[in-house]
Write a structure and sequence with these properties.
It is built from 14 helices and 14 strands. By secondary structure, the protein is of the alpha/beta class. It folds into two domains: about 15-30 and about 275-390, Aspartate Aminotransferase, domain 1; about 40-270, Type I PLP-dependent aspartate aminotransferase-like (Major domain) (Aspartate Aminotransferase, domain 2). A seven-stranded mixed sheet has the order 2-10-9-8-5-3-4, with helices on both faces. A three-stranded antiparallel sheet has the order 11-14-13, covered by helices on one side. Strands 1-12 form a two-stranded parallel sheet. The chain binds pyridoxal-5'-phosphate (PLP). Pyridoxal-5'-phosphate binds near residues 80, 81, 154 and 204.
Length: about 400
């Protein structure tokens, strides 16, 4: 690829742009399949009626199946952050030591949350874009009650080695409770919580499960369920001990978002139509295609160990992350710039959700259009060709 300094001038959007299909190519909320959306247009059901109870129980069973381990699922009426909050306060007693391993926007959030609740928080940090060190995290966990960690860090595109970190931490402290933010790895990246020794998995509906926003998921290992806190002083609505007992019996203590739960089931039927390793491998290939396209066009990945949920790419010289995202937006495509304070250092595109390998090719083409409009010099077709190679 030849690359010269981009011209400052950007051309107008093409005249055909109003004909473009608007797509969500950001790492959540993601595209949702038509049958999932249609499921939201059914006559209102009652959550205490037989039909409502069956829908809840079926969705919970599907969520365990998507995890691949016999963990029990709680569905919260919240985004993923609410689910994480419930998981933390329902497993970790007031004042306990919490280790927060952080290397990006989302992992930082769990430290802030734990501090707000008055836990004794120890932060183990790496700069954004870098990988967490298993030994460093494990050392801090020696006398801790709980470790809060993010598997797929959506702000940097790093997939932290959750298996290695959990193993090292548990070797130091067999009683440690490990809560993993798998908000963009659940149903997306290889995740083996039972084998890795991760007690609690947290996610949300608008990511890998390709459902509209509004549901959180917490999956509890059988062992951690014996240690959950009764009547936590830090939560009532998000008391997962009460919620888990209720949901196991087919009844939520509060009114659940039953319509979304039904829609979730329709989306999960599609994901569960193939074995988990096929699902993970295809998501990996799609994202590798985005990274290959970016790299061929002068926009390589930020992280060394990349998450299959999102391609976090450094824009070509002279172009900013915000410019790339804005240009894609002008073409009707919703991508994201980096997260503050790295808005211009990277941009983010994703094929998570209702998107297939052919969408990955389309995104490679969009990157070519966006870069060309921003004055980047490259040979047309280079990005799409690289994406095709990665998909083979
Ligand atoms: C890794 C990660 N953690 C946490 C969150 C926050 O989730 P929510 O917005 O569903 O509360 C996100 C959302 O993008 C995420 O990607």
């Amino acid at each position: 690829m030849t690359q010269t300094a981009p011209s400052a001038q950007t051309s107008d959007v093409p005249e055909y742009t109003p004909l473009n299909r608007h797509r969500l190519i950001a790492p959540g909320p993601v595209e949702v399949a038509p049958d999932v959306l249609l499921a939201l247009a059914q006559p209102q059901m009652h959550h205490r009626a037989k039909e409502g109870i069956e829908k809840l129980m079926y969705a919970r069973q599907q969520l365990s199946q998507l995890l691949g381990d016999p963990y029990d699922a709680v569905i919260t009426t919240s985004s993923g952050t609410g689910a994480f909050e419930g998981a933390l306060v329902s497993t970790t007693p007031p004042g306990a030591k919490v280790v927060n391993a952080q290397a990006g926007k989302f992992s930082e959030r769990w430290g802030q949350m734990a501090q707000r609740f008055g836990y004794d928080v120890q932060i183990v940090a790496k700069p954004w874009g870098e990988l967490l060190d298993a030994d460093e995290v494990a050392e801090a966990c020696k006398d801790a009650y709980t470790l809060c960690i993010t598997h797929s860090e959506t702000s940097t595109g790093a997939l932290h080695d959750l298996g290695a970190i959990a193993k090292a931490a548990r070797a130091q402290n067999p009683d440690l409770i490990i809560i993993a933010d798998c908000i963009t790895s659940y149903g997306v990246a290889e995740l083996r919580p039972a084998a890795w020794g991760v007690d609690v998995i947290v996610s949300g509906s608008q990511k890998g499960t390709a459902t509209p926003p509004g549901l959180g998921f917490v999956l509890f290992s059988p062992e951690v369920q014996t240690r959950m806190i009764k009547d936590t002083p830090h939560g009532f609505y998000l008391d997962m001990t009460r919620e888990l007992a209720g949901q196991k019996a087919g009844s939520t203590p509060q009114t659940p978002a039953i319509n979304l739960i039904y829609a979730l089931s329709v989306a999960l039927d599609r994901l569960l139509a193939v074995p988990l390793d096929v699902l993970w491998a295809e998501q990996h290939r799609k994202n590798t295609a985005l990274i290959a396209a970016g790299t061929a066009l002068g926009a390589p990945a930020w992280a060394a160990r990349t998450s299959p949920a999102v391609a976090v790419l450094r824009p070509p010289a002279g172009v900013t992350g915000r410019q790339v995202a804005a240009r894609l937006a002008a073409l009707g495509q919703r991508a994201l710039a980096g997260q503050a304070p790295h808005e211009d250092a990277v941009f983010r595109v994703s094929t998570m959700g209702y998107a297939d390998r052919y969408d990955a090719l389309a995104i490679a083409g969009m990157l070519e259009d966006a870069f060309a409009a921003l004055g980047v010099q490259f040979e047309r077709g280079t990005g799409v060709q690289a994406a095709w190679q990665a998909l083979k």
